[in-house]
Amino acid sequence: MEPAVLGGKLASGLVAPLVKKLFVTGGPGAGLVDKPVRLARLVSFRGEQRTLGEKEVRRLAGRLVGDSLDSPGEPPFPRDEETAVADALAARLLALGDLDMDDVQAVRLGHQELAKQLQYRTPSATGGLSADACYFLDSVTEWACLHVLEFFTRRSTFVARTLVEQSRWQAELIARVDELIARTPRPDARDTAFERRYLPHAAEQYNRITIYGIDLRDSPDRWPLEVAYLSLEATGTGERTVLPGEPPEPERTVSLRAEDALRADDRVLLRGDAGSGKTTLVQWLAVTAARGGDRVPYVLPLRTLVRAGALPSPAAFLTAVGCPLTPPEGWAERVLGAGRGLVLVDGLDEIPAADRHRTRDWLLALIRAFPGNRWLLTSRPTAVRPDWLAAEGFRELTLTPMRQSDVTTFVRRWHTAAEAPEYEARLLDALRTKRDLARLATNPLMCGLICALHRERRGYLPTGRKELYDAALTMLLARRDRERGMEAVELGEEAQLELLQRLAYALVLSGRTEMEVETAEGIVERALPSVASAAGQGDAAAVLRALVLRSGLLRRPGEGVLDFVHRTFQDYLGARYAVEEGHLDVIAGRADDTQWEDVIRMAVAHARPGERAVLLRRLLAADSSRLTLLALACLEHATALDPAVRAEVEARAGTLIPPRSTAAARALAEAGPLVLELLPGPDGLTDAEAHGVTVTASLLAEREPSGALAVLRRFRGHPALDVRRQLVGTWDRFDAREYAKEVLEHLDPTRLFLSCTTAAQRAAHADMRPWRKIAFHGTHTLDDILACLPEPGAVEELVVQDNPEVADLEPLLALGSLRHLALFDCGSARCLGRLSALPLEGLEVVGRADLTGLKELASLQELSVLQRLPGTRLTDTLPVSARLQQLHLGRTTTVDTGLRGLSHWSTLREVSMTSPVTPDDWTELSRLPRLECLTLDASVLDLGPDAQPLPGVHTLFLRGYREPDTTRITGLLPRARILRV
């Protein structure tokens, strides 16, 4: 019978009291003595102070056995064995006193093992018993032991002593484990120690950018990556799981930051044109991984690896790239095996085509042997076919050209790293105003070249940009590959130039920027006989492939088509070939086409002095403002030129630039963005000319925002009010935050209102210095208006116009210094009276606002109301306690009130009204002792001879007056100067 079954026949209430009587009561505490307290000292039936004798133990055992026989159901053994079983059970219970263990050890032993110990101590107890009796005896012994152990765990000393025992045991275990660790180091301890050396080394090794091909005297060729790194975008094909029943979705292009490419995908093939930043990105990923510690980076430049013949195994990764640190044996395999590696394979396009297949096999073998790691492979776009690694789960991404904001960031970081901040602003202005230069700066490589050349010339770009293009072409066509340590290219620089310029001229003549590959092959094939070094490199198709892959100037944007990476290279090379072939008439004949502007300018750069004079005279002969300005722009590239021709060009252009009026500025802007790089100033200009230049630049903002901003930026410190008003008024033509930072933050705000019309402008204003005068046009809640004010208490004048969202004006109480408020067409405005707590001196209300509470504004000195007033007198609505000095009333304002009550405000110096003037109105005016200035309708001339003259008025603005005779006016206002409106 199992103990659980026996428990069904014997209530715990019978066993628990028995167990409790078997043991003496322990005191509190942990029972800590010199020796552990054995069970023999705990039982109550041994020792000198027994509370339970052996007879009582036998009686309790007999009762337990008897109750089991009397319980319902079949008896567990024959009744004639009851006494023998009771004696045997008593003998086993009494054997508790013979066990050499304490209560903690007994609990750790368990009730079944404790029962076996009692059976072992009383082997003769079962002598003569039947099998059922023996089985019952064993079961009831286990059941009793279960209650014995339960009793032990509830004793106060047991709990405390158990904690002490555990603490001692844990301390001993820790000490032994520490000793074991000290004697036997962990298998990966050496790996960890090595990584503590390798990761900082990798972070330092790759934290430098090298710009190849630059040998200018003062230009650094390496600078800190963390300072100069620019986050570029990459584009790829986005995917979405199609639900059952949905048609398949077309591919869609998605953009993401290039450094985030490996966060969504573990395997990426990144394509990018020459100089687009692929290697820089690889270095950035290596540095961030090494510093983060979550991945172990391996940078593997293929151009270095293929020189050694066999591509390296993981064990040789560091040796192959010249790392001076020696890792523990098997370290790289353990890293990759744990999925902790970041493998960055750079420059697939930089190895011979014959090596790319074995490179692919090597890479795939690594990926399959070590899953779970992250892999990035870089290549130029045309090095391998689009699906080269698609079957292996590689996602393909392409680096995008730099945006204007990226160029600005790059230039600033370059000058910071080069410690040349004095050249930064001038170069940024040049990049914004010179369009062909801006087209060139579309990737980090070209931006670096421009920065270096600009710094080498002490802040000036070459007088002619031909020198810049020549340096760029030399770098891209020859020097960059040579300095990167690659094998000699198949085509020399001159051979590449000859073929490229023929392709460029064909595109220029066709007015296109792309051509079919077959067309390009035909052009190359016709040129090969005259280009000896290229003729030995294979057929036209092979030579063209080499040009596309290594020149850095050609690319394949789509299947079967070619174009130049920069339009400016196409124009430059096309012009070079046209001049060499003597096609000046062709060039001059296309001058009316704006697409040929850069070709003409580059042709002047390539031409000989006599040819330049011919081209420039052809431009002047057209007698066109645009072509005259184009001729002026060409002078930049004319190193040697007939002085008479130069003087004629400058004289003709001098009548156009600078513009001396707004009309001249508008006419000049018609010539197009070419004008921006020709605009002078601000030094040496009159205020009118400076204003004309800013008007011209503002008009060109939509067509060339970066160039227009560069011009306007130069005038941000100009003191003339008209110039400053023009700069403020053209804010909405630019990016709100950039314009605020570049221009508005530097303006003198005196007498200027800053107008916000969009949410973007509000957001930008929140980061600006406080303006005293500010206007909000359009729908803006008062909460939005207040939120964008950096210091609400600094605002003194506020204009809110065309805003249906304005209702309760109470929030304006936050503008504690507000002196003038204008509400134009804010029909929901109400609660004017709540503004009485403000120091308001001026208020303008135009539209249908609720005028309730207007009477409470006692601090007003100037008031304009252009809506119909309620009541029959002005004093019914206007603030009678105010000491008004100026009052302006609209045509419908006094329909019901006339000017009745106007004489109440004896402090008035200026009154303006556009409604007809009645004799009663004139009487009210005549009662104003301080009146000096009037604005009246011409109906004042119809007043009768009884109208009293107003000798104190010295200025009259007369609306609708056309008659030359002023006799009647001088009779009414003998001292007034008359201004017609």
UniProtKB/TrEMBL annotation:
Keyword field: ATP-binding, Nucleotide-binding
Domain NACHT: 266-580
Top-level division of the source organism's lineage: Bacteria
Pfam families, per the entry: NACHT, NNH1
One Gene Ontology molecular-function label: ATP binding
Membrane-traversing stretches: none
Protein name according to UniProt: ATP-binding protein
Organism from which the protein derives: Streptomyces ambofaciens
